[in-house]
Amino acid sequence: MLGKLRNVGSLIGVSLMGAITLTAFFLGSEGFLGRYSRFSLGDVSFAIVVAGFFTGFFLGALLREQEMSTALYAGILTVFATAALSMFIVYWPLISGSVPSPELLGDSVNRQAVVLGLIVMGPIVIIAAAVGRGVSENSFPSEEELATRRQLKQQTEEWHRTLEERESGARKGT
Question: pTM, whole model, 2 decimals?
Answer without folding.
Answer: 0.66
